């Protein structure tokens, strides 16, 4: 995994306090904390319905003292913002070439010694989608890591970390349990999120 803003001590501390202040001043409530058993995990980011999700997710990550990496479409990594996006923890994903993404993610997580939370939005897009992508599930299963259910509920202005979920290999049953957690949550563009 590459060097990020979360590895930059002075900047990290300043942004933590700034993020907490901004979220509180704008009425957001920060909930939960990183469980000891999830220092290395796959973190679901849902609902994902707006460009605003990234800055709020990064502020929540600072506030909760996470060390995150997140996957984003390759177009946001083009110049002039590519280096900044990578420094913010971004990993470029070419959707048309995503077939090796699971194996590459598993290898990167297994090679990392320290704490790392890999954020994967299950919808794979901000647009409305009827079917969640399963890459996050197979990354966690392949790396033998838990899935941390993180959320951003715009309706109640709360952002945080929910329960830890250990994948069993029964994807249909596991996905039903995971989606049940997200069903009552509302994204910024609520009509684009469907956890059914």
Outline the fold blueprint.
Blueprint: H1 9-25, E1 29-31, E2 40-46, H2 53-63, E3 68-73, H3 82-87, E4 90-93, H4 101-111, E5 116-120, H5 135-143, E6 147-153, E7 158-165, H6 171-182
Helix pairs in contact: 1-2, 4-5
Q: How much β-strand is present in the residues? A: 15-25%
Mean pLDDT level: 87
User: How are strands sequenced across the largest beta sheet?
Assistant: 1-7-6-2-5-3-4
Shape: globular
Please report the distance between the alpha carbons of the first and last residues: 33 Å
Order of helices and strands: HEEHEHEHEHEEH
Q: Write down the domain tally.
A: 1
- How many E-type strands? 7
The helix fraction, in percent, is 25-40%
Uncertain segments: none
Helix-and-strand structural type: alpha/beta
Please summarize what this structure is.
This protein has 196 residues and is of the alpha/beta class. 34% of the residues lie in helices and 20% in strands. The protein has one domain (5-192).
Descriptive account of the structure:
- With 196 residues, the chain is α/β, with parallel strands linked by helices.
- It has one domain (5-192).
- Helix content is 34%, strand content 20%.
- The protein is built from 6 helices and 7 strands; from the N terminus they run αββαβαβαβαββα.
- The protein has helices spanning 9-25, 53-63, 82-87, 101-111, 135-143, 171-182, and strands spanning 29-31, 40-46, 68-73, 90-93, 116-120, 147-153, 158-165.
- The protein has a 7-stranded mixed beta sheet with strand order 1-7-6-2-5-3-4, sandwiched between helices.
- The longest helix is centred in the N-terminal third of the chain and has 17 residues, at 9-25.
- The protein starts with 8 loop residues before the first helix and ends in a 14-residue tail after the last helix.
